[in-house]
Amino acid sequence: xxxxxxxVIMIVIYQRCIELVIAxxxxxxxxxxxxxxxxxxxxxxxxxxHAVFFVSLIGEVLLHVSTVSIPxxxxxxxxxxxxxxxxxxxxxxxxxxxxxxxxxxxGKKPVVHGPYRYIRHPNYLVVLIEVGMLPVTFxxxxxxxxxxxxxxxxxxxxxxxxxxxxQKAYKYEAWMKEKGRFIPLRKQKD
Length: 190
Fold this sequence. Notes:
Elements: H1 2-32, E1 36-37, H2 43-63, H3 70-94, E2 103-104, H4 122-137, H5 141-170, H6 172-176
Helix pairs in contact: 1-2, 2-5, 3-4, 4-5
């Protein structure tokens, strides 16, 4: 179980590193097109939370290897993997507009295709799913609970900042008012 865990963690960390490279490339593109970053102050907390998440997950798994049978962990891992497919779909749908930071390019329409046809923030939904399901997959229940709650708190700050910036840039609410933040086809209350 530990060998599988270490392999999965290495793959996930590698995936995060690739995402940072993509984010830097996309940031250059947006800036060259006249875009700008907003609400950068909370980004350091997001990065710190992700780093501490991996330390906590690795520590909890290696210090307390679970005795629950492998079939139990199969379903949380399947949910985690499906979330990764949603992440890829979200990133591909946003193209050069996907980033780990909040960038705005005024005069552009918001992306409303791919998963954004159904919900406002599919990538943030993925983050919540993965910080819950990846630890549960390997029996790290404390990490799952603590970091799902912590991630929900930091995402509430981020989503508010992002939606305010997008509203100013291109009347985001007019495009997304019929979409829930995380649940498809759910109207937001005015």
